[in-house]
Amino acid sequence: MAVQPERTDRYNMSLPPDSLWLRFSNKGASGPVVNKTYGYVFRGEIVDLEDNEIDLKATFDPEIFFNIILPPIIFHAGYSLKRKYFFRNLGAILTYALIGTTISSFVVGSLMYGFLQLIPHLKSSFTYLDSLYFGALISPTDPLTILAIFNDLRVDVTLYSLVFGESVLNDAVAIVLSGAIQNYAERYQTGAGGFEIDAFFRAMKDFVGIFSLSLFIGATMGCITALMTKFTRVKDFPLLESALFVLMSYSTFLIAEASDLTGVVAVLFCGICQAHYTYNNLSRDSRKRTKRLFELLNFLAENFIFCYIGVSMFTFPKHHFDPGFILSGFICAALGRAANIYPLSFLINLGRKPKIEMNFQHMLFFAGLRGAMSFALAIRNTLSDARQAMLTTTSIIVIATVIIQGGATMQLLTWFRIPVGVEEEVEMLPYTGPRSEEPGAGARSGAGSHDKAWLAKVWGDLDVRYMKPLLTHARPTLLETLPVCCTPLARLLTTTEQLTQERAHRSGSDSDLCLEETEMNVGGGDHVSTFPQHRLTPLFSSEDLPLSGGRDTKLHLLGPLDNPL
Predict the structure, then answer these.
(1) pLDDT score, position 339
(2) ∠230-231-234 over CA atoms, to 5°?
(3) Residue 558 pairs with which residues in a beta bridge?
(4) Where are the alpha helices (DSSP H) in 423-554?
(5) Tell me, what's the pLDDT at 285?
(6) Model's pTM, two decimal places?
(7) Is the pLDDT of residue 277 over 70?
């Protein structure tokens, strides 16, 4: 059926429509005619009618990337996060990921717009918002190759956590930022041309609001799953438990997308909460099964995306190769990465001990490989010539950075004199000091000399005292940490398993090292725990167990902790 659009100013006729309303008469029908609405899916432009079937088989709907392939990758990033080192370097990671990615996006967008003004045949095809969108999609990093080498060589845990933590969070920042740029162009800009202050602030409000609400949904779903696994007997059915874990995690993505939020951000923080809380409540079989399942899904999804990038270079019908745009993209991407790392590292070092040394900064710069998120954002919209040029350039940058920078990782580690073969619990900052011969002493000195971020201290205190006891079977219980007036509620939220553990070990939280008041020496004989301003409640009533009920109680437990009382 040949469809002719109405002659009206209500629609933007410069681009293909997202939805069509077809009006046709039902001739020859007996009785009243019932109005019906039919939906037609937009597949894209048909370049060659004869080869259309080949095009359809070689390509697929870009939304599959966001709804099927990306969620396992993002969830695995949060689920496998080394949270102890993530929280220890929380301030630097948030600075690089939130502020740095935003700076990089605007630097790349502004420089690209300037370069394109020097290329006559591209000058009229790209607006500043197009350049800014390219900056947002090319800023997220995906250093899979470098992290794999880091893990094999046991590179310093601080460098590993900075590279990995930034790459995890900047994916979420990039997708929300690109959405805010599109909202500025499509919803808020009046079309008068030029910069509009009101539209800018409304777009930034969307950026902050969508990111925050998506984070809240992800964390909430993770906590709900933790409560379900703590207060039910689902662990007696490991297969059901694993299925519930997977479905609750994926439903987080769907809930966020259905709420017009960002599912990538939600599923990322859901993965972090699942690993931090729910994982501790799972049965042994479910722990192994979920870890291996998401490792497999992540491996398959990542490899599929990189294979598809290579195949699409030859089969995708909407590539637009322009040497000037490609060269400008490489230069601006490198300058944007430098604008992220070096100025922010200088500012971070003003209040950080130990400092992020210059060799670490160089490695952070070269660890800026582009990957799945950049390609998924680029292929999502290829209607205009500008978006097609962005897809082609992004694909080439992804391939080049993975092969060149990823392949040069070993040589870069040697050039920059990055410490390798470092034990996980031993930090090599500062690098001038010799390593301790005693493993326990080295671990203690490494942990003790590391100044924790104030945000990590606050979160660590909240986590160990309230969140872990509430959402897991960890000790100390809420009976020990909540005020006396909350004892009935604390008893209701404390399980029998928490009260009858064979060992009175601490919560095992990855944020324990963020606390100043808690000192743990697993290898030695002393275990000192301090919980000021809280009542120490006896676990069982017995005249043979005269426990002190006063305030400011300090326990000095000498020797193995074989008895919780």
Answers:
(1) 94
(2) 75
(3) 526
(4) 439-448, 454-462, 468-471, 478-481, 487-492, 496-499
(5) 93
(6) 0.75
(7) yes
